[in-house]
Design goal:
Elements: H1 7-16, E1 22-28, H2 29-34, H3 39-43, E2 52-57, H4 61-71, E3 78-83, H5 88-91, H6 104-116, E4 122-126, H7 136-149, E5 154-158, H8 180-189, E6 194-198, H9 204-212, E7 217-219, H10 222-226, H11 228-232, H12 235-239, H13 249-263, H14 273-277, H15 290-303, H16 307-314, H17 320-323, H18 341-344, H19 353-358
The chain binds flavin mononucleotide.
Residues 1-4, 25-26, 55, 82, 84-85, 125, 158, 173, 198-201, 220-223 line the site of flavin mononucleotide.
Enzyme class: oxidoreductase
Function: Catalyzes the synthesis of dihydrouridine, a modified base found in the D-loop of most tRNAs.
Organism: Castanea mollissima (Chinese chestnut)
Length: 359
């Protein structure tokens, strides 16, 4: 998520969960190509962040090829191509982000070019449609064409359409309704492909509900950012079956401080204390002391020059009982979210072969 899942957030996320797959922010192919002498700033990450997926965006085959080639030595575990971003800054620049869903032939070509320049699997993240092109059959045509024209075998489906005229990116993540039945229709109609569900899933209970209904993978966006401790803190044990680590937020912050102080000012004046602390501001979500800690943080941003001094000045607001407890019971979610999904599935996909091949 742009401005959110940067290196700092991913470092925190990995301290909380050893197994969750982490995704970078979308990086434009052009940024990688134009910054080729400065790539570490955009592409480097610590080895602990594996498994990690690099998401790239773009609409120029040459740049996509070059960007993938430049990223290859960084050994991401998968390269994902963004076909879901509705931002006018992205979608408005010719055909980029969600708008690309209207041109599956190009996406197929782009994915072939990306796959040809990397050693790792490739995937597409998309919506279930764009504007009036929102029928289940059109979504299937997109998946069919992209997977027939390229080696793409994994699709991450943000299960609402994108509306490209008139509403903001944030509204585009809430106004178009979620249609999980389209996602589960894809699982039925493309049994040889892998699908990861995304959109509105908030906790491990709901992740498990999606998996029970057949999803191969589940992507959590905003909930993992707004409440990282509660949401990611149960992933290893509840989803991956690993023993609970028993780690506490005090232990996580001790490690994070070492990381934070080592990166301050690495690129000239950036990152600032504020940049490094930003993902931590949600670590005490709804806990006693959270409001006071945020107020202290606002003041500390004015004068603290290190993460160590920032913690000394602010963490007194958080009671020891919060700092020293392992993660509490998982939040209870909508366990029955997908219970009736089979009765809602769209009519099975009918491949209009001629239209698809000669469109
Ligand atoms: C601030 C922000 C930035 C985002 N940036 C990206 C991005 O760079 N690439 C992408 O594929 N999706 C991006 N998204 C969308 C999320 O990945 C996700 O698809 C969406 O929020 C729905 O999932 P959720 O309900 O779990 O949050 C962004 C979302 C937010 C809130």
């Amino acid at each position: 998520m742009m401005d959110w899942t940067d290196n700092h957030y991913r470092t925190l996320a990995r301290l909380i969960s050893k197994h969750a797959w982490l995704y970078t922010e979308m990086l434009a192919a052009e940024t990688i190509v134009y910054q080729k002498d400065n790539l570490d700033r955009f592409l480097a990450y610590s080895p602990e962040q594996h498994p990690i997926v690099l998401q790239i965006g773009g609409n120029n085959l040459e740049n996509l090829a070059k960007a993938t080639e430049l990223a290859n030595p960084y050994h991401y575990d998968e390269i994902n191509f963004n076909c879901g971003c509705p931002s006018p800054k992205v979608a408005g620049h010719g055909c980029f982000g969600a708008r690309l869903m209207l041109d599956p032939k190009f996406v197929g070509e782009a994915m072939s070019v990306i796959a040809a320049n990397t050693d790792v699997p490739v995937s597409v993240k998309c919506r279930i449609g764009v504007d009036d092109h929102d029928s289940y059959n059109e979504l299937c045509d997109f998946i069919y064409k992209v997977s027939s024209l390229s080696p793409t075998r994994h699709f991450i489906i943000h299960s609402r359409k994108a509306m490209l005229n008139g509403i903001s990116p944030a509204e585009n993540r809430s106004i178009p309704p979620l249609k999980y039945e389209y996602f589960y229709g894809l699982l039925r109609d493309f049994p040889d492909l892998r699908f990861t569900i995304n959109g509105g899933i908030n906790c491990v209970d709901e992740v498990n509900a999606a998996r029970r209904a057949g999803a191969h993978g589940v992507m959590i966006g905003r909930a993992a950012y707004h409440n990282p401790w509660q949401v990611l803190g149960h992933v290893d044990s509840v989803i991956y079956g690993a023993p609970s680590s028993g780690i506490t937020r005090r232990q996580i912050l001790e490690k994070y401080q070492v990381y934070g102080d080592s990166v301050l000012g690495k690129y000239g004046i950036k990152p600032h204390v504020r940049d490094v602390v930003k993902p931590l501001l949600h670590l005490f979500y709804s806990e006693p002391g959270n409001g006071l800690w945020k107020r202290k943080a606002d003041a500390a941003f004015q004068n603290c020059k290190s993460i160590k001094s920032f913690f000394e000045e602010t963490l007194v607001a958080i009671p020891d009982s919060v700092m020293d407890s392992p993660v509490a019971e998982p939040l209870s979610g909508r366990d029955d979210l997908f219970e009736n999904i089979d009765s809602l599935l769209p009519t099975p996909y009918k491949l209009r072969e001629q239209e698809v091949l000669y469109a």
